Amino acid sequence: VSQSRYLREENFNRLKETLSAKWRIEDSLREPFSEYSYLNRANKSYTSYLYPISKGGDKFYAVKRDLDRIDRLIALDSLGNESFLKYMSTLSSPIRVKQDRVFWTEYTSLGRWELESFSDLFEYNISTGKTQRLTTNKRLSSPNLSNNGISYIWINNLPNLSQRVEIVDSESMSVQMSISPPKGVRALVSVLWEDTIYLLVKSDLGYLLYCRKLGDLEWSEPLFRSKKEISSINYYQQRVWFISHFEDVKDIYSVDVESWCDLRRHTNSRFGVNGLFIDEEEGKFIFSDFTYNGYSIVSEVSDSLLWKRAHKVGSSYFNSIESAIGSQAGL
Q1: Which of 116, 148, 149, 154 minimizes the C-alpha distance to 135?
Q2: Any residues with CB less than 8 A from the CB of 245 and at least 6 apart, and which?
Q3: Which terminus of the chain, N or C, has less C-beta within 10 A?
Q4: Which of these, 208, 168, 169, 215, lies nearest to 189 by C-alpha position?
Q5: ∠ Cα 246 250 253 (to 5°)
Q6: Would the pTM of this model clear 0.90, i.e. be above it?
Q7: If you ran DSSP here, which 8-state letter would residue 44 be given?
């Protein structure tokens, strides 16, 4: 009996050593490129801070979600102190910020026709604490603000299943420009930087990125194609930034807009990131990082965010960069 017990203990210790060594290697591979701390304070129960944003200074905003209360818009300072702003309905897009206002789209419905739903634009005035509905019975998705703060850009999903990329004056709410996306695709996100529209779409080929100057009549050829999901596209310092899971975990990537060949990975998250927002004035990258207890907020200055060159594996995930450039060059 004693010998059998000894063998069991010895086998258990060997198994423990083997698995511990394996797990140490796995953990080392998931260590972040940059050491960062979470902005929010730890919670006792599962809690997520989604779509974090900022507009300069040490004030941050996010949607807080937990198991006890419905989603709510909160404000945080750099010390993690929270203040409640308002309860939120069912969001259809991340929150964004415009001066002293937070805007988003949320699902709405008609009282008479229960199954007829819409996605309208709302804004919350931080100074007055009032919420205003800016559109009525629209089907908008992924609203963003132009880098000069003058115009909204969003995708309008029409009842006939067609789409329009619209640029709208942020004060008068008048449509300045309305164009169709490329044929045979489904538009997901649009970004307006200076005089260029960047449009992320989904097609049978995967996720494609197009661009178009405001004065042009046609969209460009696809700038790149990815078979993996892409989200949260931003434009900053001559690079397009986005979130994807090329290495099976959602991380932040960027690619330069000159050659479309310099693909970089800026995070090495253990479980995945979400909701990238770039504060251009402060040079801050703000996003949610998933932990065992939910999503927590990370705020890092761009200069301190280390990166590694992403491996290009041809058709396996991030391809057609070279082929797209070659087709434009006539190669």
Answers
A1: 154
A2: 228, 229, 251, 272
A3: N
A4: 208
A5: 65
A6: no
A7: S
